[in-house]
Design goal:
alpha/beta, D-Maltodextrin-Binding Protein, domain 2, 3 domains, 10 helices, about 20% strand, rod-shaped
């Protein structure tokens, strides 16, 4: 730290060097002749010589000394060469990173999914994506559709897989999975006819799945008397096991084997939603394509 009684030294202007000039210097240090160095870079020997002459001019010091018909790097230019090698190597690394970023090989993807999508339907696709895109930081949020939709609209998530929403303004919506919603009776009860169904333990009021279920039950003539609610299918299934009531669950989460007496009351469509006007995120594009495929 400079003394408070002593003015700080004034730094000179930054050297106006180009990466190409530094690459020329690295090449002539690696090859025996200027001709070989020029060939390795895909330029003419004349262009190489002119670029090195300009590098010397901008540095303000000579880099080469002539020995017969050859020009060799001066010993005292070791620090300049070491700097050039670092810059060229870092620039090549950056180039590889940019190329990977353009194709979705790096970056961060913030994904939301309802539990059925994350656990049952899209588990393999997520596992495969992570294995093939190890440099992508994949963040997953599992929550009900309404919460995930709000996060997508706020920009907290890049995309989400939710139950098909009614209001799609400002969203790009792509179908992913269609699943059946089946009646699950309490333990020891036969499915019977709709007039004998109930009371019910269902998803919370206001959820998209609850709306689909209630509409379908009423259409079948069932009375919808709800005695308990939960966002968790496992909890609803346990409530039916304890005899608290009937429920309707996605067939992948019903815990029942497919049988002739299985009653499908409705279908729900899981869709991938993203903001229509979104910033470029190649990694998110790759992930979305993997889910849709």
């Amino acid at each position: 730290m400079a003394s408070p009684n002593r003015p700080s030294p004034v730094e000179g202007p930054l050297l106006n060097l180009t990466v190409q000039q530094l690459a020329y210097l690295v090449a002539v240090a690696e090859y025996e002749t200027f001709s070989e160095a020029a060939t390795s870079l895909g330029v003419t020997t004349s262009a190489l010589s002119q670029g090195l002459a300009e590098l010397e001019r901008r540095l303000g010091l000579p880099l080469f000394e002539r020995q017969g018909r050859r020009q060799l790097l001066r010993d005292e230019t070791h620090d300049v060469l070491a700097y050039a090698q670092r810059v060229v190597a870092d620039t090549r690394d950056l180039g590889r990173w940019v190329a990977s970023a353009k194709h979705g090989g790096v970056g961060r993807v913030r994904v939301g999914m309802i539990d059925a999508a994350a656990v049952h339907h899209l588990h393999d696709q997520m596992t495969s994506f992570r294995a093939n895109h190890v440099e992508v930081d994949l963040r997953l949020v599992v929550a009900p559709s309404g919460e995930l939709l709000d996060q997508v609209r706020r920009g907290d998530l890049d995309l989400a897989v939710i139950v098909d929403p009614e209001n799609v303004d400002g969203l790009e919506v792509t179908p992913v999975v269609t699943e059946s919603l089946v009646v699950v009776p309490p333990t020891g009860h036969e499915v019977g006819v709709p007039s004998t169904w109930g009371p019910w333990v269902l998803f919370p009021r206001g959820s998209r799945t609850r709306e689909l279920i209630e509409r379908a039950l009423v259409a079948r003539g069932a009375t919808v008397d709800v005695v308990a609610e939960s966002h968790q299918p496992d909890v609803l299934r346990e409530m039916t096991r304890l005899g608290m009531g009937w429920t309707v669950l996605p067939d992948s989460q019903s815990g029942r084997k497919r049988s002739d007496d299985e009653i499908v009351v409705a279908e729900r469509h899981l869709v991938l939603v993203r903001p229509s006007a979104r910033s470029a995120n190649p990694a998110a594009d790759q992930f979305a394509q993997a889910l849709v495929d």
